[in-house]
């Protein structure tokens, strides 16, 4: 019996009803973007370049005019994308859920708070400039780039892991390691909701606490132990990387962990927790930027000089890093045979 006759018979002799295109459910529209205002000036280009250099492949993607990443919030997973609003002093952030997750008010509030910290949107550029005016060199750098902000982090644990991966290697090498870590230990994203280039959510502490990171990434075992130790500490003390703790307490707790020294602790405090007085004093880029022809200062001399920058030493560091990045690379003198 032909298929259409069977359908008619099973419907009591009535022809099957074909839904009208007008009655088909329309796709659910994306929720409106989050509006994130700031005090100008605001140097989006510098933040974009910094995040592009330090992005974790698979978990973050940066293209001109757009930053995107995967996110996890208390079991909720999704993606977000941030762009500057060309018509106003604000950023616009669009959130998408993966799977059946809902974007409720709690998710929007949590994402808003994290993005405001990550892009340093509550900074007062005038107050920072006034506070750094006691050092002629730093004051000149602030005038040159008045809109620099602290490049923060969406997730403090993720940033701390990146800082450990970056110990004693270049930024490019640390980025490659981060991409391999994400692919090996991260949680795959649902393809339907993922931004192009986003494949995984960065691994959480419970995914790394017993992971053999050194073996998988082919890196020194000390750094693998440091990542496992950090993950264990975060699971035992969920407030270890929580905002609001003092700089001294944060640095003391982090340097008590294996494989984390003052440079890593201050870098995490600066980027992950937004401590405006954090200063990784042994950083080579900072020391190079302070060399105006008489040679690089020592870390101890940098600490002495930085007393005039307090409580804005982190902003001085950002300006020095920007200055170091802008200087032409020294020419190599060819060796004679």
Description:
The structure is a single chain. The chain is an alpha+beta fold. The protein has a single domain (about 35-320), classed as 2-Layer Sandwich (TATA-Binding Protein). It is about 45% helix and about 10% strand. It contains 15 helices and seven strands. It has helices spanning about 5-10, 45-55, 105-120, 125-130, 135-145, 155-165, 170-185, 205-210, 215, 220-235, 245-255, 260-270, 285-290, 300-305, 315-325, and strands spanning about 35, 60-65, 65-75, 75-85, 90-95, 185-190, 200. The protein has a five-stranded antiparallel β-sheet, with helices on one face. Strands 6-7 form a two-stranded antiparallel ribbon. A hairpin with a 2-residue loop joins strand 3 and strand 4. Helix 6 packs antiparallel against helix 10. The protein is globular and about 60 Å long. Mean pLDDT is about 90; it is low at about 1-25 and about 330-335.
